[in-house]
From TrEMBL, chains A, B:
Protein's UniProt name: Ornithine cyclodeaminase
Entry EC no(s): 4.3.1.12
Alphabetical list of Pfam families matching this protein: OCD_Mu_crystall
Keywords assigned by UniProt, alphabetized: Lyase
Gene Ontology MF terms in the entry: ornithine cyclodeaminase activity
Domain of life, per lineage: Bacteria
The keyword Cell membrane is assigned to this record: no
UniProt cross-references to InterPro entries, sorted A to Z: NAD(P)-bd_dom_sf, ODC_Mu_crystall, ODC_N
Species whose genome carries this gene: Celeribacter baekdonensis B30
């Protein structure tokens, strides 16, 4: 049989993992994170323009697979992402992801990209962006509890956006801490490996929790958290998966992405459904205050929202335009006469 | 910089449009449709095993973009599909689609495939499968109103599964009818081009409506439909998009895929929320009757449900295994140490 040559319309630019790594290195990780944070901030500041819905989750005993769609008037984006804490022991990653950006006006995808790396980068960029609004002034020390795949990205983003240079690491698996310490010292950080979470939080301005167990864990208890700190809670992002003791929540000022989703998935699933929270988009627009004094305990109850992925997809689309970091993928059938799909098929035979 | 070579785990088998066409021709369209219908029937018969949700739709003035997920205990599948009736005039297709099948146990995708062609094939296979349960005995004549991209696939499926050999075509655009007539005569059908919907339905055993306008249209009025016919209503599949006059609905026995979705999107959006409908999976399992007598008017209020796409994804996965009809796509990052995503990135630099 002959080999049909798809038309231009049939091709969707695809960014593979290898090309995403090339893109990151072409910009440098720090600039990638800072520029990406600017895209995220831009989209948070126009929050009401988005079509928003809590992500669609399919839970199993071993993990979750989620679809995270959102759209503005011009673009539609979604991410596929899984979360399987037991994967790591079997040589697989806890989280893998890919995503698509499409034209709202005709429904055609304009970008397909790996998002395993991109999710790590956007999660870190979001945390640090929020840190810029909420971390205490002059913050330079961050405790990091949970030293898995997300850890280094968080550290780099907090240095690029908030000036954090000293890290205090703790993980229940010392091998994870050793891995993160090695990587982060290679990036010029002053790194202390700690033997307990209690030790890690001593003197920290910011506390990042990023653990993977799918359970209601208590990574931080109330006595471990002082006044004036900012907690960046990443790992509690699923029903039945939390990291903080409830007492911390009741005395912290809680900041969230999208309350409808966070109340299901975040630390605040432990609280009453009407417990007051502050929406970050309103803080970024200057409509409500962020941190109001040096003694306040602030908490970013991060679960990850579709708009952050949308920003990341927009960012990648803009950055790969005109580069060799994408390849054309024959994803869409494109008959000469759009009604003659069958004719296209028979002519290929 | 060096070129990182992704490991086996990073690759997802991808079926391009060109490869989907090769797969169809390697089996023959008739066998593809029959075998696919068998997969769909198998999944309808185990309906209660699936995690089901109405599709997640993002509506705009010009169309809709939808995500359609479902899962059983082993596999998770979803389809991305758009519907933009105005596309055709601009040289784009009304419907394009792609889909992914994943392992529930670790969340890793096992197949990425084009689904524009596959959706046309699975929609036709589903219609004809339902026709086998509901069409009058000895049916040989089908009226087809709306002769766009889906038309030929419906005809082939109804011949392969139900023995339909004579077609009566009508479309408001005579060029569409001419296109379908040419294609279908080439496939050995006895085809009559009609000058009105009224003329097309004369003497038909089965009436297929498959029009694209996003509005409450009246493609069929009550006086056009006799006793004993089976209506296969494809085009009414969106809020505000219907094809049949309400009077037809009130005298027909109505069969649906997933009531929770059909009541939002199907012809029955015109009826009260508790209007009785019969679920097809129960008919296929023999738990409730399908057509009970020769004079009964039966209606398949088709909107397309995620389980049909899941069946199609399973089918394609099985058929491309061991063939050259897929290519490996570097979609998933795969560090040697799953926790060392950052190390993978820096070593690639």
């Amino acid at each position: 049989m002959n080999t049909p040559q798809p038309s231009e319309l049939a091709y969707v630019p695809f960014v593979s993992v290898a090309n995403m790594m090339r893109l990151v290195h072409s910009l440098g990780v720090d600039r990638f994170l800072s520029d990406l944070a600017a895209y995220i901030e831009e989209d948070f500041k126009r929050w009401p323009e988005f079509d928003k819905t809590p992500r669609v989750a399919s839970h199993s005993l071993e993990g979750v697979i989620e679809l995270m769609p959102t759209a503005d008037a011009e673009l539609y984006g979604f991410k596929y992402v899984n979360g399987h804490p037991k994967n790591m022991k079997e040589g697989f990653q806890t989280v893998t992801a890919f995503g698509v950006l499409s034209s709202v006006s005709n429904g055609y995808p304009v970008l397909l990209t790996e998002m395993t790396l991109l999710t790590a980068l956007r999660t870190a960029a979001t945390s640090a962006l929020v840190g810029r609004y909420l971390a205490p002034k002059g913050a330079s020390v961050m405790a990091m509890i949970g030293n898995g795949a997300q850890c280094e990205f968080q550290a780099l983003a907090f240095r690029a956006l908030c000036g954090i240079t000293r890290l205090r690491l703790y993980d229940i698996d010392p091998a994870a801490t050793a891995k993160a310490k090695r990587n982060l010292e290679g990036q010029g950080f002053d790194v202390m490996a700690c033997s307990s979470a209690q030790e890690a939080v001593e003197g920290a301005d910011v506390i990042t929790t990023c653990t993977a167990d799918k359970q209601c864990a208590t990574i931080l208890t109330d006595n471990m958290v002082g006044r004036g700190q900012h907690i960046n809670a990443i790992g509690g992002d699923c029903p039945g998966k939390t990291e903080l003791h409830k007492d911390i929540l009741t005395r912290a000022q809680i900041f969230v992405e999208y309350p409808e989703q966070t109340r299901i998935e975040g630390e605040i699933q432990q609280l009453a459904a009407d417990h007051p929270v502050t929406e970050l988009w309103q803080v970024m627009r200057g409509e409500v205050p962020g941190r109001t004094d040096a003694n306040q305990l602030t908490l970013f109850d991060s679960v990850g929202f579709a708009i952050e992925d949308f920003s990341a997809l927009r960012f990648v689309r803009d950055k790969v335009a005109g580069t060799a970091f994408s390849e054309p993928l024959d994803l869409l059938a494109d008959p000469d006469d759009p009604r003659d799909l069958f004719g296209m098929l028979t002519r290929a035979g």
